[in-house]
Design a protein that fits this description.
Strands 1-2-4-3 form a four-stranded mixed sheet, covered by helices on one side. Strands 5-6-10-7 form a four-stranded mixed sheet. Strands 8-9 form a two-stranded antiparallel sheet. A hairpin with a 2-residue loop joins strand 8 and strand 9 (129-130). The protein is α+β, with helices and mostly antiparallel strands. The relative contact order is 0.20. It has helices spanning 34-47, 64-82, 132-145, 159-178, and strands spanning 3-9, 13-20, 27-30, 50-57, 91-98, 101-108, 114-118, 125-126, 129-130, 148-155. The chain is built from four helices and ten strands. It starts with a strand and ends in an 18-residue tail after the last helix.
């Protein structure tokens, strides 16, 4: 089973996270940021990842450190769980509707963490959640996981719907990209022989 546990302690956040890439979509999320909890629960469900997360952050300042550090930990767990990425499909994409919003996610589990993020202009907040921190979450996740992720809004007006579509789309694309390709189960999917 592709599984990892991550513990991170800084002056800004205290995070304990477990991650299974081969789960059923179970999520126990307590980040201290309600909208982030909602997004990560959807991410777990649509990716069929099992995630347990407990974060205590300096939310009295704002949510930035909590959101970014959660992305760091999830990225670390993702990379650790996949190991040398032997046998994975590597590439995947999906275009996902959420009411009036339509978002495309394309992923390459390349070993090189790159984020291309084009969700357009969003409302500054959803509840108390600073929407600009969603980009920080994905940037941290990509850097630490070694995944290249493109997120692009095609249509959409409601910020909640756009962000929800982006998390669901990313989850489903990542799930497909890490599926084992049975024809090449013993091979690293790179002509170089490694992904970095």
């Amino acid at each position: 089973m592709r599984y990892a546990e991550i513990n991170r302690s800084t002056s800004e956040t205290e995070i304990k996270l477990s991650f299974s890439a081969d789960g059923v979509g179970d999520a126990e999320i307590d980040s201290g940021a309600g909208f982030l909890d909602h997004m990560l629960t959807l991410f777990a469900h649509h990716g069929r990842f099992d995630i347990t997360l407990r974060c205590r952050g300096d939310v009295e300042t704002d949510l930035h450190h909590t959101v970014e550090d959660t992305g760091i930990c999830l990225g670390d767990a993702f990379a650790k769980a996949l190991g040398d990425r032997r046998g994975i499909t590597r590439y995947a994409d999906i275009t996902l509707p959420m009411d009036e919003a339509l978002v495309t996610a394309a992923v390459d589990i390349s070993g090189r963490g790159v984020l291309v993020y084009d969700l357009g202009t969003l409302a500054e907040k959803v509840g108390v959640f600073d929407t600009e921190t969603a980009r920080e979450f994905w940037s941290a996740f990509c850097r630490r996981s070694g995944a290249t992720l493109h997120l692009r809004r095609i249509t959409g007006e409601n910020t909640h719907h756009i962000l929800e579509a982006s998390f669901k789309a990313a989850a489903r694309a990542l799930r497909r990209a890490i599926e084992i390709d049975e024809q090449f189960a013993d091979e690293v999917p790179s002509s170089k022989g490694l992904l970095e």
